[in-house]
Design brief:
The chain is built from 16 helices and 15 strands. The chain is an alpha/beta fold and 488 residues long. It folds into three domains: 271 residues, 3-Layer(aba) Sandwich (Rossmann fold), CATH 3.40.50.620; 95 residues, Four Helix Bundle (Hemerythrin (Met), subunit A) (Up-down Bundle), CATH 1.20.120; 47 residues. α9 packs across α10.
Length: 488
């Protein structure tokens, strides 16, 4: 397998640290609101990466965090007049609803920042001892906004980027260029505009933890370093997330982690491209975002996942209602094929014809093409093309007028490969839509009445009964093998 590594800006052979095992860390949501479609892209893409590696026989340890203390969470809590913990728990639950709808596998670990503050403090202490971190200010109210009479002062703690010689190696920009656009905000006491907060002195009405620097809370970047180390080790195989996290978040993770432990932080960095609205990046700050919940209420969750995987993960996607409609139509074609196989199996021959040998070779070739695409930097678009090749070719054999020129054995083989490959992409997980459900008794009764009407050549009654079946949410079709009914 080859992976495009942001760290080296090249596509490289993937070689894990431990043969047969892969450790992956994916940056998860900051839980202060519903996730938008842009947030959903890395969630679906890297869930698919995990599924694919497991399909190929790797043992995958997958960690995805929740950032549950942050300026945005504090602001949301103040707006809703509830605690930051209540806000975080509320939107973790809402995220889990969306993740389940998108068919995301449960992570091996789902750590929270607030549950790892001791580990965070330990790293900051180490960075301070090694000379990479410094505390700023003297705890006065004008400088930190925290000190009160008879209260111990609190300090901000910063990472000094100039001390880390390789700073900028992920974003491929020298420190001087990064510094040119940086500013020191009011109230910050940094030595350099590029220095970033490891620990923030507590302000009134904010959550805080006790530390040697006084009451405070972790900075955003240090959270992930602590959780990676605790759950996966000093060096991991793959660190992944959205393109917008390359700088400063992932750049800062590398600096503080490698400065602390003197080891590589992650061997491979994978970043997905943006989702655009009218060629402009979707984001909450731009106000041009659509939540997953809104889109799912209109189109369902599965078309969202399909749309996000239909393009290569590093390519930008232009989001629109039309793109989701197209994804929904493509999914219906896959579901129709799944239903068609199930319906056709009782009617095909048990004999193996010469055609079957060629078809079996073709099906195995489609699985090989799927693997080759996924091995090429997780090319899900190419992998989907291999699945639709199966649909097109097998449908041609099932639709031949003379006979179904395919055996039961080969059709079962097609069904097995089709289900397996869609499972790797996390698709076709709706049992009702796939035709695996039993029809309700009242629907079966009307189907039987319609069949009798057709035998009598009472087509007006048959059409009326078809309409009744449709109004109940089911589709009825006539095929060479008989009447076929399934959930619409």
């Amino acid at each position: 397998m080859k992976i495009f590594n942001t760290l080296t800006n090249t596509k490289e052979d993937f070689v894990p640290i431990t043969p047969g095992e892969v450790k992956i860390y994916a940056c998860g949501p900051t839980v202060y609101n519903y996730i938008h479609i842009g947030n959903a892209r890395p969630v679906c893409v890297f869930d698919t990466l995990r599924r694919y590696l497991e399909y190929r026989g790797w043992k995958v340890t997958y960690a995805q965090n929740y950032t549950d203390v942050d300026d945005k969470i504090i602001n949301a809590a103040n707006e809703e007049k509830i605690s930051t913990d209540e806000i975080a728990q509320k939107y973790i639950r809402e995220y889990q609803v969306d993740a389940k709808g998108l068919n995301i596998l449960e992570a091996t670990y789902h750590p929270k920042a607030t549950e790892n503050v001791d580990e965070i403090i330990e790293i900051i202490n180490l960075l301070e001892k090694k000379g990479y971190a410094y505390s700023a200010g003297n705890g006065t109210e004008t400088e930190t906004g925290t000190a009160e009479e008879n209260e111990e002062p609190s300090y901000d703690v910063y990472f000094e980027t100039k001390k880390f010689a390789e700073y900028g190696k992920l974003s491929h920009m020298p420190l001087e260029e990064l510094e040119s656009g940086a500013r020191i905000a009011t109230g910050e006491l940094k030595r350099n505009p590029m220095d970033f907060a490891l620990w923030k002195a507590a302000k009134p009405n904010e959550p805080y933890w006790e530390s040697k620097w006084g009451k405070g809370r972790p900075g955003w970047h240090i959270e992930c370093s602590a959780m990676v180390r605790k759950y996966l080790g000093n060096t991991i195989d793959i660190h992944c997330g959205g393109q917008d996290l390359i700088f400063p978040h992932h750049e800062n993770e590398i600096a503080q982690s490698e400065a602390a432990w003197g080891e590589p932080f992650a061997n491979y960095w994978m970043h997905n491209g943006y989702i655009n609205i009218n060629n402009k990046k979707m984001s909450k700050s731009e106000g041009n975002f659509f939540t997953v919940r809104e889109a799912a209420n209109k189109f369902g969750y599965e078309p969202i996942r399909f749309m996000l995987l239909a393009a290569h993960y590093r390519s930008p996607i232009n989001y629109s209602n039309e793109s989701l409609s197209q994804a929904k139509a493509a999914l219906e074609r896959l579901y129709n094929f799944k239903r068609s196989i199930k319906f056709s199996l009782p009617n095909v021959s048990d004999r193996c014809e010469e055609t079957d040998c060629k078809l079996k070779e073709f099906l195995d070739g489609c699985e090989t093409a799927f693997i080759e695409s996924m091995d090429d930097d997780l090319n899900t678009a190419g992998a989907m093309a291999a699945i639709f090749d199966i649909v097109k070719t097998i449908n041609q054999h099932l639709d031949e007028k003379s006979q179904m020129a395919i055996s039961k054995q080969t059709l079962n083989h097609a069904a097995e490969i089709f289900d397996k490959l869609n499972g790797v992409l996390g698709l076709l997980n709706d049992p009702e839509n796939s035709g695996d459900n039993n029809l309700p008794a009242d629907v079966l009764d009307i189907v039987e009445q319609r069949n009798l009407a057709r035998e009598r050549k009472d087509y007006d009654t048959a059409d009326e009964l078809r309409g009744k079946i449709n109004s109940m949410g089911y589709t009825i079709e006539e095929t060479r093998g008989g009447t076929r009914v399934y959930k619409s």
